[in-house]
């Protein structure tokens, strides 16, 4: 049994950090350790032992959001016809949904639906609860309160996503689910990372962080990047965007957070920037995390419509070296009108009842990032008014941005404004891109004569730029919408098993408020298309003769063999070999290169692999890369704390008194592992007069032998305890 230890000096006191700044970059405004992670048993275990907390279906008003609109200057801003408005109708026939099912009948106002697919599950969430389904839409659990994952907290606004880059135990599918919600005790947010790929039967590492600002982080949006989970918030303080230490969280180890300002943003009310969320394919390189927000020339302080992009670089070893750009780019756009009713939140007409909130000034959940061979792509969208006469007709302004490589400038590859047929509003969109570069967009729609419905459209990669070319399809038609406030966000995600199936969850009324899931695809199979979808080794203790193994998937309709494959380390010389097996349509096989790699340095390596099938119909998806770090692993049996005495006593074999006398510094790390090395709990103890005392509650585990470790790195003491 081995545990990784990276020995770092973390002396962080919130509010007392001093950070160097220069004219182009700003340092963090806050930094520290998140609260010690709490290990929550699996949902299956909670259902067995009676601790599962059912969702509270008492009608409730969601926590107020966007109470203060942006400062609108009367008579200022763009007018007339939207210059990016799509005028050509879709020329491709749409495909009906593969599957639709109801995720919940929500009593929350609004439900704020979110969800994602994993290898074998879909998790759907709404304002204070979630439910786990198999991929036929069959529920595997009851409706669970968020307090099932976050003890004592079901305040709401969850964001659920799937991290496809985390490796699990051998033989298990790759990736983990992540569930988040905000927290007002302290002001911050909770993040739960599943311990494995199965959200029903695997436990959860749960983290809480606060920011020391006294301000509540409203409207949080999460984005996955290689070095962190990044969070934006509508928050009335100098802290506007946050990073939490993703890699540590996947292991259940103590993890840091950083908070940054958002320099140069022009808005005086609601803040809704969004980080670029890595969705699949290659893992992004470490660093240069992009963040985007729209800027409307109708707002005070904005002279022309544009997008602002910031870049964040974190340094977890020396957090004070972390920076956010000021900002990195200002990208002019075709003029748009993102203002409805001078910034109020009752905008779109419906057959009966009040006008519905259009969700203006909001980069919708999520802004998606994907790497291709030769360029990186990012998608984002927000609602605009397309009626040039002064009335209101909501459309979706969408963008595909590209850059030649990470850290390089972004440019607009295409932009368009999509409006729904039959004079209906189109708003509350969510976009994603599949492995072939096809775009899917799910959205909400209604008019003065038609109640709220959930629909989707999209385009294929080679279609004319700026147009959604696939005819609109229906997921669900509602019959009622008696409210102003409908779903502050919706969520479209990509299936990690094939990287081409879209899963969309949104809110409608039939006749009461509920969330519906629609599953669809746009891909048109080609005869010849192969891609690498995974590689090993993974981060760990590596050598100077590591075998590089890749997984190759056949996305085409024809069997393939003799596929050229290659890899390079940190942009060095290509190692080129040939996969000589036979790969049937849809099949996945592995290939191990005969030439090994020297990964013995204690550093992070960028390994990039490639297929080079001469007849490949879509070569842009041929490249696949990951960041692999060599970490020295120390056996905990070899580590001791000098001048220390460890005393463990127990009165009932479930509650242990731990005492430690030592000259160690002011904080001491405690961790408990089971016999297989899985972390059960982690905490920091405080030194009081040279002695640490702690009552360890093991009443939640089965009988058996466990390992308690105290201290970190070379200053560590460990002992076994037996629970009967």
Short recap of the structure:
The protein has 724 residues and is mostly beta strands. It contains two helices and 50 strands.
Short key terms for the protein model shown above:
ten-stranded mixed sheet, Methylamine Dehydrogenase, Chain H, Immunoglobulin-like, 2 helices, five-stranded antiparallel sheet, globular, about 45% strand, disordered N terminus, about 725 residues, mainly beta, 50 strands
- The residue ranges in which pLDDT falls below 50 over 5 or more consecutive positions are 1-23, 633-646
- Enter the CATH topology name of the largest domain: Methylamine Dehydrogenase, Chain H
Q: Which overall shape is indicated by the principal axes computed on the Cα atoms?
A: globular
Distance between the termini: 22 Å
Mean pLDDT: 87
What is the CA-based Rg, rounded? 26 Å
- Oligomerization state: single chain
Summarize the SSE layout with pairings.
Blueprint: E1 3-4, E2 25-26, E3 30-33, E4 38-40, H1 43-49, E5 60-61, E6 99-104, E7 108-109, E8 114-117, E9 121-126, E10 129-134, E11 144-145, E12 159-163, E13 176-184, E14 187-194, E15 204-210, E16 218-224, E17 229-234, E18 241-244, H2 246-251, E19 256-260, E20 274-278, E21 289-295, E22 306-313, E23 323-325, E24 329-332, E25 367-372, E26 375-385, E27 394-403, E28 411-418, E29 425-433, E30 439-446, E31 453-459, E32 470-477, E33 491-494, E34 501-509, E35 513-521, E36 530-536, E37 549-554, E38 560-569, E39 575-583, E40 588-592, E41 604-611, E42 623-629, E43 633-634, E44 645-650, E45 655-661, E46 667-673, E47 679-686, E48 691-697, E49 704-712, E50 715-723
Parallel strand pairs: 5-7, 20-25
Antiparallel strand pairs: 1-43, 2-23, 3-19, 4-15, 6-35, 8-9, 9-10, 10-11, 12-13, 13-14, 14-15, 16-17, 17-18, 18-19, 20-21, 21-22, 22-23, 22-24, 25-26, 26-27, 27-28, 29-30, 30-31, 31-32, 33-34, 34-35, 36-37, 37-40, 38-39, 38-41, 41-42, 44-45, 45-48, 46-47, 46-49, 49-50
């Amino acid at each position: 049994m081995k545990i990784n230890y990276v020995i770092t000096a973390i002396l962080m006191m919130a509010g007392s950090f001093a950070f160097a700044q220069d004219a182009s970059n700003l340092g963090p405004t806050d930094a520290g350790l998140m609260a010690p992670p709490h290990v929550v048993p699996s949902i299956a275990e909670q259902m067995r032992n009676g601790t599962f907390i059912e969702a509270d279906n008492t009608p409730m008003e969601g926590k107020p959001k966007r109470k203060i609109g942006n400062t609108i200057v009367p008579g200022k801003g763009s007018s007339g016809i939207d210059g990016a408005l799509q005028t050509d109708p879709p020329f491709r026939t749409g495909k009906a949904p593969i599957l639709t099912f109801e995720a919940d009948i929500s009593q929350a106002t609004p439900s704020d639906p979110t969800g994602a697919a994993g290898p074998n599950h879909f998790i759907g969430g709404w304002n204070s609860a979630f439910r786990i389904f198999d991929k036929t839409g069959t529920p595997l659990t009851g409706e669970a309160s968020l307090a099932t994952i976050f003890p004592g907290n079901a305040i709401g606004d969850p964001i659920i996503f799937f991290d496809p880059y985390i490796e699990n135990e051998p033989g298990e599918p790759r990736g983990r689910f992540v569930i988040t919600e905000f927290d007002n005790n302290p002001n911050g947010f909770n993040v739960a990372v599943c311990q494995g790929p199965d959200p029903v039967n695997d436990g959860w590492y749960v983290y809480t962080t606060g920011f020391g600002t006294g301000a509540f982080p409203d409207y949080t949006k999460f984005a996955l990047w290689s070095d962190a989970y990044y969070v934006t918030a509508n928050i009335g303080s100098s802290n506007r965007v946050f990073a939490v230490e993703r890699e540590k969280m996947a292991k259940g180890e103590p993890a840091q957070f950083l908070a940054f300002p958002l320099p140069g943003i022009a808005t005086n009310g609601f803040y809704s920037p969004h980080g670029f969320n890595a969705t699949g394919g290659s893992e992004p390189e470490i660093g240069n995390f992009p963040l985007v927000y729209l800027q409307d020339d109708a707002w005070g302080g904005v002279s022309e419509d544009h997008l602002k992009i910031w870049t964040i670089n974190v340094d977890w070893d020396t957090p004070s070296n972390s920076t956010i750009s000021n900002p990195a780019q200002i990208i002019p756009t075709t003029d748009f009108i993102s203002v409805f009713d001078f910034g109020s939140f009752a905008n779109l007409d419906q057959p009966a009842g009040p006008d519905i909130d259009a969700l203006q000034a909001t980069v919708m959940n999520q802004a998606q990032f994907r790497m291709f061979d030769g360029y990186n792509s990012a998608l984002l969208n927000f609602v605009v008014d397309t009626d040039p006469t002064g009335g209101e007709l909501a459309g979706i302004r969408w963008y595909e941005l590209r850059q030649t490589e990470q850290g390089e400038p972004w440019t607009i590859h295409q932009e368009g404004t999509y409006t729904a047929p039959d004079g209906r509003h189109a708003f509350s969109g969510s976009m994603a891109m599949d492995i072939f570069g096809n775009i899917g967009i799910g959205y909400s729609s209604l008019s003065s004569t038609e109640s709220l419905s959930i629909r989707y459209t999209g385009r294929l990669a080679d279609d004319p730029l700026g147009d959604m070319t696939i005819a609109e399809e229906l997921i669900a038609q509602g019959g009622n919408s008696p409210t102003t406030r409908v779903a502050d966000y919706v969520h479209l995600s990509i299936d990690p098993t094939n990287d081409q199936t879209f899963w969309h969850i949104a809110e409608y009324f039939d006749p009461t408020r509920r969330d519906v899931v629609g599953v669809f695809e746009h891909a048109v199979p080609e005869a010849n298309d192969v891609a690498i979808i995974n590689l090993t080794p993974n981060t760990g203790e590596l050598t100077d003769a590591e075998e590089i193994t890749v997984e190759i998937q056949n996305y085409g309709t024809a069997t393939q063999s003799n596929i050229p494959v290659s890899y390079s380390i940190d942009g060095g010389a290509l190692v080129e070999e040939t996969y000589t097996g036979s790969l049937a349509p849809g099949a996945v096989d592995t290939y191990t290169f005969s030439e090994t790699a020297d990964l013995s340095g204690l550093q992070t390596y960028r390994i990039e692999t490639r297929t080079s099938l001469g007849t490949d119909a879509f070569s842009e998806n041929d490249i696949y890369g990951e960041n692999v770090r060599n970490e020295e692993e120390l056996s905990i049996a070899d580590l001791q704390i000098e001048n220390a005495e460890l005393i463990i006593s127990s009165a009932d074999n479930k509650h242990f008194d731990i005492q430690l006398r030592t000259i160690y510094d002011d904080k001491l790390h405690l961790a408990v592992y089971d016999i297989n090395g899985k972390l059960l709990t982690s905490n920091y103890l405080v030194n009081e007069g040279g002695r640490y005392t702690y009552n360890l509650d093991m009443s939640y585990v089965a009988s058996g032998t466990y390992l308690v470790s105290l201290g970190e790195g070379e200053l560590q003491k460990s002992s076994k305890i037996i629970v009967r």
